[in-house]
């Protein structure tokens, strides 16, 4: 029975059997004319998830990090300036990637557990009289801290400053789990991946580019080859990729999009909110604290939870894995040793989440945490019982 336990890391997520079956196909000729019948609708249907009518969707065989690199190298040039806030491990890594490509990065340092500082972005953009800043980079869902940032507020701040910078958004751990509105929020480049809300293995970077970003790409001079937008879009127009595609993942993505459409995106978002709220009820019952500093920042795909002083979160996650065979997210960066993470995104139900809460409770009790065994599970059960079949949203 090994391998039967679900994972509670914030990605890669649990893979439904339906997607395993969709990917269990024999190799086909990706240069044959009928491949386009599979691939072209996938690109078109991804627009519905990004909520864009005019954006260009581009898929690369890669992870989300490859998507970051594609956005930077296709739209910016060495010496260009970008504005980024550092408020978690993944915003930090995007900063590092930009610097390695000789992009000038203006960093706004923020406390971990906070989100994208729209008002500070506005101040800096207002001071940029010559419009040297080419882009503002935002991590929508900071996976290290369980914080969801308000991208619409960032766009409003940019518009209020009457600045022409582009808006780049990392939505790797939010897309297909929480609401994302590319057109409405004025996002110019959005980066995601196959291994989170799409419930697939890692292996595809999924990028959406606005028409403004595509115009900027014509003048960008960062070196690129594998991640070249032009090469990829040109090959897509002829029904393929410029190199060997990840065929099985593309078949899986086709079925994943079918699943999302059948459930309905708004229902997907409501399910994630409900699962996350049950976890938050459990955290409160344990007497523990979320890393996210206020409810308006709570992520519906991952909760990062501080362990009490004197305890080590790595010891807790290791114990849960070694003794009970269940994986939880470790603390990253400033959270290392201080917090563990419960991923509650993708192919999960309330029953599955309850099994994770029960497991981490057992692990905490084994390590002498001052909790009442069953308290968190009972709190989540209470919430799930009351909300079964009830229409929910983050605003509820």
Derived from helix and strand composition plus strand pairing, the structural class reads alpha/beta
Assigned CATH class of the largest domain: Alpha Beta
* Strand segment tally: 12
Q: Tell me about the biggest sheet?
A: 7 strands, mixed
Report what the structure shows:
By secondary structure, the protein is an alpha/beta fold. The strands form 3 sheets. A 7-stranded mixed β-sheet has the order 1-9-8-7-4-2-3, sandwiched between helices. The protein has a 3-stranded antiparallel β-sheet with strand order 10-11-12. The protein folds into 2 domains: 17-261, Type I PLP-dependent aspartate aminotransferase-like (Major domain) (Aspartate Aminotransferase, domain 2); 265-387, Alpha-Beta Complex (Aspartate Aminotransferase, domain 1). 41% of the residues lie in helices and 15% in strands. It has helices at 17-23, 35-50, 64-75, 89-100, 118-127, 151-160, 211-217, 229-237, 247-263, 265-286, 313-324, 350-366, 375-387; strands at 56-62, 81-86, 104-109, 133-139, 141-142, 147-148, 166-170, 189-193, 203-209, 289-290, 302-306, 339-343. α5 runs parallel beside α6 (151-160) and α10 (265-286) packs antiparallel against α13.
Give me a quick take on this structure.
The protein is 41% helix and 15% strand. With 396 residues, the chain is of the alpha/beta class.
Properties at a glance:
396 residues; alpha/beta; Aspartate Aminotransferase, domain 2; Aspartate Aminotransferase, domain 1; seven-stranded mixed sheet; three-stranded antiparallel sheet; 13 helices; globular
């Amino acid at each position: 029975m090994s391998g039967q336990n679900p994972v509670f890391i914030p990605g890669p997520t649990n893979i439904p059997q339906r997607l395993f079956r969709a990917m269990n196909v024999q190799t086909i000729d990706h240069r044959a004319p009928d491949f386009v019948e599979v691939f072209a609708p996938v690109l078109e249907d991804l627009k519905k998830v990004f909520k864009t009518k005019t954006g260009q969707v581009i898929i690369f065989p890669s992870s989300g990090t490859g998507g970051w690199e594609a956005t930077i190298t296709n739209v910016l040039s060495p010496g260009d300036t970008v504005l980024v806030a550092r408020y978690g491990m993944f915003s930090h890594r995007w900063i590092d990637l930009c610097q390695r490509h000789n992009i000038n990065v203006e960093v706004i340092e923020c406390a971990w557990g906070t989100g994208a500082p729209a008002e500070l972005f506005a101040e800096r953009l207002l001071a940029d009289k010559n419009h040297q800043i080419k882009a503002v980079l935002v991590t929508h869902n900071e996976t290290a801290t369980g914080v969801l940032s308000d991208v619409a507020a960032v766009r409003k701040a940019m518009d209020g400053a009457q600045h022409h910078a582009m808006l780049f958004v990392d939505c790797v751990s939010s897309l297909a789990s929480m609401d994302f509105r590319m057109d409405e929020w004025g996002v110019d480049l959005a980066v995601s991946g196959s291994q989170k809300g799409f419930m697939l293995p890692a292996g595809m970077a999924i990028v959406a580019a606005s028409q403004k970003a595509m115009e900027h790409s014509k003048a960008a001079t960062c070196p690129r080859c594998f991640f070249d937008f032009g090469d990829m879009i040109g090959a897509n127009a002829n029904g393929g990729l410029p190199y060997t595609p990840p065929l099985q993942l593309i078949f899986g993505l086709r079925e994943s999009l079918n699943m999302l459409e059948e459930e309905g995106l708004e229902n997907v978002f409501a399910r994630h909110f409900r699962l996350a709220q049950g976890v938050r009820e459990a955290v409160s019952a344990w007497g523990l604290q979320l890393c996210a500093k206020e409810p308006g920042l709570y992520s519906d795909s991952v909760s990062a939870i501080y362990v009490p002083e004197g305890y080590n979160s790595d010891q807790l996650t290791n114990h849960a894995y070694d003794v009970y065979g269940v994986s939880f997210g470790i603390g990253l960066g400033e959270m290392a040793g201080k917090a563990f993470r419960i991923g509650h995104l993708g192919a999960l139900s309330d029953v599955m989440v309850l099994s994770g809460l029960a497991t981490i409770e057992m692990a905490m009790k084994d390590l002498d945490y001052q909790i009442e065994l069953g308290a968190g599970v009972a709190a989540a059960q209470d919430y799930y019982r009351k909300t079964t079949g009830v229409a929910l949203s983050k605003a509820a």
